[in-house]
Amino acid sequence: MGKTMMDGKMVGGKISLSTELRETSLEMPPRQDAEKVDARDADTPDNWIKRHEAMVRLTGRHPFNTEPPLKVLQDAGWIT
Predict the structure, then answer these.
(1) Rounded Cα distance, 36 and 68, in Å
(2) What share of the chain is helix, strand, coil (3-state, %, to 5)?
(3) How far is CA 74 from CA 15, 39, 50, 58, in A?
């Protein structure tokens, strides 16, 4: 039996994944684009970049190293 390989491309709003057991895909959550520059970035080199306000900052202000809140990932069905 030959393996079906899916390369992670977006197909119909879902990501196709490789698996030997069954065809698998994950539905993408709706986009949540940032709308404004965060005030915490005002006096950094990133003072022009719009950032989503819910992102959890891991390293302070600059450089920007973040992750989404865990609850948001879980609600979307994603664990990274």
Answers:
(1) 17
(2) 10, 20, 70
(3) 17, 28, 24, 19
Provide the b/e sequence for 29-57 (b: ≥16 CB within 10 Å). eeeeeeeeebeebeeeebeeeebeeebee
Q: Is the pLDDT of residue 7 over 80?
A: no
Spatial distance between the Cα atoms of 55 and 68, rounded to a whole number of angstroms: 5
For residue 20, give every residue at least 6 positions away whose Cβ sits within 8 Å of its Cβ, in sequence order, or none. Answer: 3
Give the per-residue pLDDT at 61: 76
Q: How far apart are CA 34 and CA 23, in angstroms?
A: 33
DSSP H helical ranges for 1-80: 70-76
**pTM of the prediction?**
0.52
Phi, psi of 6, deg, nearest 5: -110, 135
**CB proximity list for 42: less than 8 A, separation 6 or greater:** none
